[in-house]
Amino acid sequence: MKEIVVVSGKGGTGKTSVVASLACLIDRKAMVDCDVDAANLALVLNPRIIEEKEFAAGKKARIISEKCTTCGICRDMCRFDAISEDFIIDPVACEGCGACFFYCPAFAVEFETPIAGHCYICDTPAGDPFVYAELSPGEENSGKLVTMVRTEAKAQAERAGLSRILIDGPPGIGCPVISSITGTSLALIVTEPTASGIHDLERIAQLARHFSLPAAVIINKSDINPACTESIEQYCSEKSIALLGRLPYEKAISEAQRQGKAIVEYAPDLPVSKALRGISEQIISIYKE
Amino acid sequence: MIDFTGMNIAMASGKGGTGKTTVAVNFAWLLASAGQRVQYLDCDVEEPNGHIFLKPSITESAPSKVMVPVVDQEKCTSCGECGLKCQFHAIVNLPGDTLIFPGLCHSCGLCSAVCPTGAITEGDREIGIIEKGKGTKDMDFIHGILNVGEAMAVPLIKKVKNGQKDSYVHIIDAPPGTSCPVVATLNGSDAVIMVTEPTPFGLHDLKIAIDVARLLNIPTGVVINRDQGSYPPLSDYLEAAGVPVLAVIPEDADIARHYSQGSIILESLPHYIDVYETLAANFEKFLDTHNVHAGRMRS
Q: Which end of chain B is more exposed for a tag (fewer CB within 10 A), N or C?
């Protein structure tokens, strides 16, 4: 099983649009959306949900006011300032450590695992399996939900006899990103030639190195700042990061998205679509390696 | 323009790359140009970008640490109590050895509290750095930079927010997404300005981000960025949800070019000052409707 994960560091560089096009151009693979906070790949893959699974991880504490003697031990124990002066636990601040539950002398604290999201196992029109998830707004444990969607996708791939998995990753470099990239074969970084794009590219490339994961780069909107594009290319050659291609800025990508399509489907003759086909061929050979 | 001193104004979006930092930086610049004392807090500790535009001279830089347990193996009897109670799987008890996984630890202190032999003390671990300084227009600046490979952003975000100074207007740049780092950033804000783009991705993520703001009871307005004319799904949603549009910024290749160079748009393209003044005026009205004033909500 070979997994390729598309990441970016900076948000909004075009990860999901690139994945949507690669999904059209690469056959026989399973797809996963690991951006469980804000999953968008489903909006362009037109999936059909086959199975829905509940996600529960991490407990939350709640004080039963009838049993509470207002002794204050829980407030002394809580390091997250989650318990108010009138002994109500703020579910947003509670990190679920259980200190209040274990130390309450009146057994007035309930400590249970709420549903924190859902995982969707889907079929797509092309017949490839696709798994995504929705974390409930403001919830924690996005890293664990990422692990869940990846595990489900692997199971789907195995069942269908597929050996390739294409992962749409989340932005940033923290917990859900680390869960998305561990154990994969390649971090495909979609960047843009802006001062912020380069800054964030360096941090996500460092993260890949930190986990001894090979990286490759696609420069999106490469024509908006040619000097900056050149600096990115130089950075990649210094760090021995493969440059898979450049994509020109293309307004029609938004229009394709509004129609629920990848740009290679919506306008196959545009230069950006040709460039994506070139990139997809390289990725297919990486999968075969 | 009213004096926003004491207010905590957060910029968020759900989707990444919609222009949070651009709006935050330029709105901060507008307020500072009007003579207000502005403090910029960059809470996107995974990928902080505010400094690229505000170009602060950093005067203070300090490592940021969190508590982690330290086990005195001499005193440890391998009773297993700490590993049993730890909800984060950060402690594994083996016969004759107690292993700590610092990356999973939430610093709750429960293990040291439950240890019957006092074998667990509290040490610390660096997760990133906090830098402070003065940026353009004499703006006070603070950001956190998460160490590469570190999973936990929330404690560092809380440290950035602890650097908040009184008698300033606080412009808080949030990370993308809708989970715990965003909650930690928005919590305690007086109002949030969501920066969105008129696309299906932008709208999908905006809805979740607005749900987070509602959960936290924070009044929310929207800035539509990269506008290309009518996008009914967005306007219909905002109308139904009762969320006002505070400003509309058009799709403009000039903005993209100046942004790519790390410039402040209002310095390079001064004709956009009008748009940001409209934002400030609409924001002021919006605060009035929600009865929000300087640093706290009026009851």
A: C
